[in-house]
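INFO  loader      accepted 1 record
INFO  loader      residues=159
INFO  predictor   begin
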Amino acid sequence: MTGWPPRALLALCTIGLSNGAWANLTFSGTLNEPPPCTIDAGNTIEVDFGDVGIKRIDGVKYRRGLGYTISCGTDTLPWELRLSVKGTPTGFDGAAVQTSVPALGIRVFQNNQPFALNAPMDITLSSPPRLEVVPVQQPGAILAPARFTAVATLLAEYE
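INFO  predictor   done
INFO  writer      dumping tokens
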């Protein structure tokens, strides 16, 4: 049987005889959820482009404003509000929602810049970005007369 080295025994004895200060630590806090938000009181926002000339789709004509309001409950914490458009992008434009016509999309703009789908951006509740939409077609595609629809979700959420 081997014994403890003298230095190890001295260290153990010194630890036991220490007169150091100590204190208990207590941690507490409150977990909060961000306040609930609604866009246009939960109603569907509809944009009707009406009759669109297939040879006049140029990403400029037929541009429409997307009017919306965001309402959030009050809270004292500085939550960061984010806005995104969730939808299926076209294969030719990451800021355009795929429509029921394969070569046709609806491009979304925020403050006159293309708004990439499914990519949230930080916003301020008091001045949300101006959103606009416009039909766009796949370059080189030839469109045939048809009715079209597209669906996306405008999402405001706190992070």
